[in-house]
Each structure stands twice: as C-alpha cells, then as structure tokens.
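We were asked to recover a plausible sequence for a given structure. The inputs and outputs are reproduced exactly as logged, with field labels preserved.

PROBLEM: sequence recovery
POSITIONS: 302
GIVEN STRUCTURE:
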C-alpha cells in the first residue's frame, strides 16, 4: 500500500522538461516540491499501513504500550517454565514456594495476552483484566511470605496467613471499586492505601516480621529472601498507588503512560519477586549439597 502510493505520487509530481531552461532557484523549488510530495506520500502510506495493522489486531511499531504488553506476556510464560523446571532440583522445603511462583507468572501471562489484545483493539486500560490478574496473583505472592517462614518454623500460626490474605484482598477490591466507579474514587484510593499499609506493617512489625528474625538463626537464605521480598512490596508496590493517583484521580498521565508503568511494575513485582525466592532456594540447596558431600567424604576417609 505504501509503495503504491509513493509510486503514484512520484508519477504526478512536478517534472522539469529537459528542453526547458530554468534558473537555479526555480530548479531548487521544483526539486523541493517533488521531494515534499514523495515525503507526504510516505507519511500517508505509513499511517494507512499502521491502521491496517491495528485493525487486524497485530502489534504496531508505533504502539509502545502494546509492545510492552507483549514483552511482559512472553516473559511471564518463560518465567513459568523456568520456575517449574527449577522446582525439580531444589530441596523439598522450597518446592511448594517454587510451584506457587510458577502459578503467579502463569496466571499473569494468560491475563497479559488478553490485556494486550484489549489494548490493541480499543486503546483503553484493561481495568477488569488487570484487577482479576492482581486478585489472583497478589494474594499468592503474600502466601509466599508464609510458606518460606513455615518451612523453617512449623509452629507459625495460621493467623499470619489470613491477615496477609485479607489485607491484600481488601487493598485490591478497594482499588477496583474506586476505578470502576462502584464507590467514590478517592474513598477507594484511601482504603486501598490502608490495605497496603496493613500488609507492610505485618511483614515488618507483625508476626511475619518477628518470625523472620527467628528464621535468620536457622536459615540465612530464607531471611535474605524475606528481606528482599518485603523491600519489593514496599518500594515496588508504591508504583500502583502513584499510577492510581496521577493517572486516574488527577487524569494527568493518561492511559498510555499508566499502562506502560503498570506493565513495568508487574515485571518487577512478579518476576523479580519470584526470582528472589528461586535464588534463595538454589543457594540453600547447593549449600546443603556441599555439606552432604563433605560429610560423606569424611565418613569415607574415616
């Protein structure tokens, strides 16, 4: 389409006859007019081609937000396969955490494919798909705190599990109701913040935080993973209320910047979060293996 339009324009562009004598100024004007016509044809053809790509539901090189949706989708799928494969080579106490990590990225991948399609077709924020994704994956991430601590302290009470789950659910439901117009947007924002603050309190000062201090005496890898995970929850999650405030309440960012930022945040807060758990599991497994090999060598030498 673009090449045909350029060819047609070139045919109808001003042509200077060979026998006609023009001044240098007139020749420059003729050349400029011809180049302008061809450039205009390229521009029009590019926009026509972009529209055809968009209407067909494919990625457009000019739509960076759609590209970010696709990148995150593929990254989530790759992470799922990676975590599942790695779960076979870590010690038993880490297997459940690795399986939950793979579920987090798998659920996110499915929703991101739908969010990408929604954005390509309508160029609007996929609020429903995004919040469904968060309502499934974020509670599972909070459960990870409980799982890694319970692995070294089986006496942990179930209350910590339920507090993290309820706090997360309250935060997400409040945010969705505010963005969907079910309740006042400012009320939803404030309630969502309270849910987030409650989670931060629990993982730093509540039973989870106290259990993490106990874990440090038993397994240093669990404590290191726990500290990094709660930093992600504190700093990484701050992107979401900022996006809600500037993008939805103040309407200053618009849909494109907000979705690009949310996509980047999910990349960090989901994939990096799960990679922290994998790294701790890998380090702990290798350390146990070396200790076992060392003890075996001592027995053989004796």
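RECOVERED SEQUENCE:
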């Amino acid at each position: 389409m673009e090449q045909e339009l350029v060819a047609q324009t070139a045919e109808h562009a001003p042509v200077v006859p060979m026998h006609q004598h023009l001044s240098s100024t007139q020749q420059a004007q003729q050349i400029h007019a011809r180049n302008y016509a061809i450039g205009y044809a390229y521009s029009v053809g590019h926009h026509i081609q972009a529209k055809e790509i968009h209407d067909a539901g494919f990625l457009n090189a000019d739509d960076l937000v759609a590209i970010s949706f696709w990148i995150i989708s593929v990254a989530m799928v790759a992470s799922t396969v990676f975590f599942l494969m790695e779960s076979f080579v870590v010690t038993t106490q880490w297997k459940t955490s690795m399986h939950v990590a793979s579920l987090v990225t798998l659920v996110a991948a499915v929703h991101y494919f739908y969010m990408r399609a929604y954005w390509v077709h309508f160029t609007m924020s996929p609020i429903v798909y995004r919040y469904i994704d968060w309502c499934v994956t974020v509670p599972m991430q909070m459960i990870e705190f409980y799982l890694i601590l319970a692995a070294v302290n089986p006496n942990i009470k179930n209350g910590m599990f339920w507090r993290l789950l309820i706090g997360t659910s309250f935060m997400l439901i409040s945010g969705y109701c505010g963005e969907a117009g079910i309740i006042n947007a400012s009320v939803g924002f404030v309630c969502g913040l309270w849910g987030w603050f409650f989670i931060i309190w629990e993982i730093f000062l509540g039973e989870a935080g106290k259990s993490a201090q106990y874990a440090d005496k038993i397994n240093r890898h669990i404590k290191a993973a726990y500290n990094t995970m709660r930093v992600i929850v504190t700093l990484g999650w701050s992107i979401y209320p900022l996006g809600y405030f500037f993008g939805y309440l103040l309407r200053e960012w618009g849909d494109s910047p907000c979705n690009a930022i949310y996509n980047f945040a999910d990349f960090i807060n989901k994939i990096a979060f799960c990679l922290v758990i994998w790294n701790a599991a890998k380090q702990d497994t290798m350390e146990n293996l070396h200790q076992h090999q060392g003890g075996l060598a001592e027995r053989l030498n004796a």
